[in-house]
Design goal:
Strand order of the largest sheet: 23-24-26-27-28-31-32-33
Structural class: alpha/beta
Radius of gyration: 38 Å
Shape: elongated
Strand content: 15-25%
Distance between the termini: 54 Å
């Protein structure tokens, strides 16, 4: 058992180290206080009590205790202990004496996955494997003959050849020597007084301690019966005393070669056993019937067994994969793993459940690979790992994406998805539901008087009260600030109003106390009915919001039901002007295009590495890049009454609702194609442009034909255009979208896909879609430099994308630290105002390729 001492004050980082180390036979001891670690290491004498290795976290600003600890680690006896320094920034080690210390390795905290390999390398270098006695000495020959003359004659020949020789005169003495010493070859006289040589050979072969010895029988004359008895006893050679010395030594050399081959096989087997023992994954082997033939310690530990003998010779299916994920028994004939054993199929990354010796289930990911010998199936090797923590992590990530962190209620994103599904369901069934929009009255006043902490506490208490009063079938979410939304499923108007009144009453009865302050709480509720005629989720929410606003204007602490005939929602007011405005913009060409540069990470890598992270961040990186961007993202804008450009998000949703989006998308594509043609004619070289289109546009029956005609007439290569979907919501049109994207990709156009489905990472859907580029959700970009979860998610996205030969794009990069983190994670392309601002179409045609980055404060 090797002892590893981990010295690090952060409990989170210590936990990361524990999870990263997958070596059996290790005992991890932790010290959170560097002063305590200093006392412990200072009190050691010689090697007594010394750990086998030390993992030391070194911060950007080291304390005096840490510097004293570094001095102790440089002095005997601690200077001989392998040391792994874990750092966030290697510059923190400048001038540190530990760098001149032997057996010291430096590792960055972000490379925790390399800890096991680095630790194993350090331990092996510090404690090299022992050389066995057989490797230190030459081949050991035991010569057995009752004639001293024969022993002397042949023993001398063997010693001259460099063999180690032991001479005995009786079978009993020879057997005793073979049991006590490492004998490689035994040459036995056939005729001896007490026991003939073939009988001794049989005894040696029956004994497990001596059965490895290569056996030869020495006799004075040739006899067929004698030779047959010799070979039947387990001997592989029959030698004759009257043959030439050269022939005798040649026979011995043949036996030596056999010994050497056996040693090589034994060493390789030992190495394989060591590898199996050291890997963190469970590994076991089965024959074609699924009977366990070997198993490594990690598998024993994961399955809860103490001895491999408990599993060897037993059915793997009967022992630990006899049930499905739900715990129901599975017949071996229907078990995927059992069928893979019998058919010799390869099964990769199969997720299932194994049952432990204690009867508990663990989630595992396993891979089955068949073993063949001389062209025939000999069984299978199965490697598996416990993925319980990973599944919990994925569930936690999914929960975080769909829930409000403060109140633990569902968030707006999930609500909008659920509302869309509810509208589709009501369209099919003809039933009715209701939506309540709840706003806490005078919430701002409480925030101002008692502080934001009081406001947060009030939101938590209100959310708990609302959860207690709504029905189990209803859905409640916090959509922003002090606003809550409830979807009441399958209710008529009268019932919905009673339920809303229950919620209003529970708020009216509540009293909020924070410190010495006491506040009366009330809430205003806007209600709207949902049925088959409901236009969209956005409209339903706008109607309920408008009704809530009316309730507040009528005196607060009341309910107002939205009336389609009397109430005009802000949604309606806003929408009425968009149709004519967008139509005129198309007819008169008022839309403007802006072009956001996208840079290959390797173009800016050296600049990022040389930037001082302590700088105020306002330096112009583009001045130093000295290279043009790799492609542009096209952004459509619409000038308002004052001539200021409105972003696409302000008007494209309306364009989709009024079926104008297809015309707008085609308008943008035509302008971009003409721009590429003009640049080519002016000798400006080819440049690629990424254009966002809607699903409606992509699904138009003639869209691909229109594209083919545009690029053909303009003489533009398809590779100059990359297309991305503004919304990546696979649903009822998933197959049609997949077919159209595949067709675009086959035509040579670039295809950019988001790595997310409705905000939740689901990389599996990417395997079904053809794409050249994958964009990373900006939710994972913002906190990337400091959030290990974001780092893990981005690393996974990059690894999966690269495995599929796709490039990754990080958008909305807004600071230097994020740039450097993305470069370290091997993201292919970077985009953001920190690197360069968007440029206009006129600037692009004038030869301006990059607009200086805006000042980041």
């Amino acid at each position: 058992m090797s002892t590893i001492l981990v010295i690090e004050p952060s409990a989170t980082l210590r936990f990361g180290v524990r999870r990263a180390i997958h070596l059996p036979g290790l005992e991890l001891q932790e010290e959170a206080d560097s002063a305590q670690a200093l006392v412990r290491l200072s009190s050691m004498s010689g090697q007594s009590g010394c750990p086998d290795a030390i993992i030391l976290g070194w911060p950007a600003r080291a304390t005096s205790e840490l510097h004293e600890l570094a001095t102790v680690l440089c002095d005997p006896p601690c200077n001989r202990i392998p040391l792994m320094l874990m750092v966030q920034d290697t510059q923190a080690l400048n001038g540190l004496a530990l760098l001149n210390r032997k057996a010291t390795l430096i590792q960055h905290w972000r490379n925790l996955e390399e800890t096991t390999a680095n630790l194993q390398q350090m331990l092996l270098a510090h404690n090299p494997p022992n050389i066995t006695e057989q490797e230190q000495y030459p081949v050991h020959v035991l010569l057995v003959d009752d004639s001293k003359t024969i022993r002397t004659q042949f023993g001398g020949l063997l010693r001259k050849e460099g063999y180690r020789v032991t001479l005995t005169g009786t079978a009993a003495e020879a057997y005793k020597v073979a049991k006590q010493q490492p004998i490689d070859i035994a040459i036995v006289d056939y005729y001896m007084p007490e026991e003939n040589g073939d009988v001794l050979c049989q005894r040696l072969k029956r004994d497990p301690a001596t059965r490895h010895i290569e056996l030869a029988v020495l006799t004075g004359n040739y006899d067929d019966v004698l030779v047959t008895a010799v070979l039947a006893s387990g001997a592989t050679e029959c030698m004759f005393k009257n043959e030439s010395s050269r022939l005798f030594l040649a026979r011995v050399k043949a036996l030596v070669r056999s010994c050497e081959q056996r040693r090589i096989i034994a060493r390789e087997k030992q190495q394989l056993d060591n590898i199996l023992d050291s890997v963190g994954d469970g590994v076991y082997g089965v024959d074609m019937e699924g009977i366990v033939t070997f198993i490594n310690p990690a598998a024993l530990k994961l399955l809860g067994y103490d001895r491999e003998s408990d599993l060897l010779g037993q059915s793997a299916h009967a022992l630990f994969h006899y049930a499905d994920v739900a715990g129901n028994p599975v017949d071996p004939r229907h078990c995927f793993l059992q069928q893979a054993y019998q058919l010799g199929d390869e099964l990769l990354q199969w997720e299932t459940q194994f049952q432990t010796a204690r009867g508990t289930a663990i989630s595992v990911e396993c891979s089955v690979r068949p073993r063949h010998f001389d062209g025939y199936l000999a069984g299978s090797v199965v490697a598996f790992r416990d993925i319980s923590e990973r599944l919990l992590f994925e569930e936690e990530l999914k929960w975080q994406v769909n829930h409000d962190h403060l109140t633990k209620l569902l968030n707006r994103q999930y609500l909008e998805q659920a509302l869309e599904q509810e509208i589709r369901r009501l369209f099919r069934t003809g039933e009715t539901s209701a939506l309540l929009f709840i706003d806490i009255d005078r919430f701002k006043q409480i925030n101002d008087l008692a502080g934001h902490a009081a406001g947060d506490q009030l939101l938590i208490e209100v959310s708990n009260k609302l959860k207690q009063r709504v029905r189990q079938s209803d859905l409640i979410a916090r959509v922003s600030g002090d606003e809550f939304v409830v979807i009441l499923h399958n209710v008529k108007q009268e019932k919905a109003y009673k339920l809303a009144e229950n919620l209003r009453e529970i708020l009216d009865e509540a009293v909020f106390q924070y410190g010495e302050r006491v506040f009366d709480i009330t809430g205003s509720i806007g209600m709207t009915m949902i049925d088959a005629s409901s236009f969209s989720a956005e409209r339903v929410l706008a109607n309920a919001d408008s009704a809530c606003h009316t309730a507040k204007c009528q005196g607060r602490n009341r309910i107002h039901l939205f009336d389609e005939d009397k109430d005009i929602s802000p949604f309606d007011k806003q929408e009425q002007g968009w149709i004519s405005r967008l139509t005129q913009a198309l007819e008169k060409g008022r839309f403007q295009l802006a072009f956001q540069p996208v840079f290959a990470t390797y173009h800016v890598q050296s600049i990022l590495e040389n930037c001082d992270t302590k700088h105020d961040g306002q330096s112009n990186l583009i001045d130093a890049i000295e290279c043009r961007c790799d492609f542009y993202e096209v952004q459509i804008q619409l000038p308002d009454a004052q001539g200021n450009p409105l972003p696409a998000a302000a008007f494209l949703p309306a364009a989709e609702r009024f079926d104008l989006i297809g015309n707008i998308d085609c308008y943008v594509i035509k302008r971009v194609v003409n721009l590429i043609r003009r640049q080519s004619c002016n000798g400006c070289g080819s440049m690629a442009y990424a254009v966002s289109i809607s699903e409606q546009t992509l699904l138009q029956h003639d869209f691909v034909t229109l594209l083919d005609n545009l690029v053909s007439e303009a003489g533009v290569a398809p590779e100059a255009l990359l297309f991305s979907l503004r919304e990546n919501h696979p649903g009822s049109h998933a197959r049609e979208i997949q077919a159209k994207l595949t067709l675009l990709y086959a035509r040579g156009f670039g295809v950019i896909l988001g790595e997310q489905v409705r905000g939740y990472t689901a990389l599996t859907h990417l395997r079904q879609l053809h794409a050249s580029h994958i964009t990373i959700n900006e939710n994972f970009i913002d906190g990337l430099p400091t959030d290990p979860i974001d780092q893990a998610v981005v690393r996974a996205i990059v690894d999966v994308s690269h495995a599929q030969k796709r490039k990754t794009i990080a958008r909305h990069v807004e600071n230097l630290e994020t740039c450097q983190a993305l470069a370290h994670l091997k993201v292919d392309y970077l985009q953001g105002d920190f690197l360069a601002q968007a440029i206009s179409e006129s600037e692009l045609e004038q030869g301006v390729t990059v607009q200086p980055a805006r000042q980041i404060v």
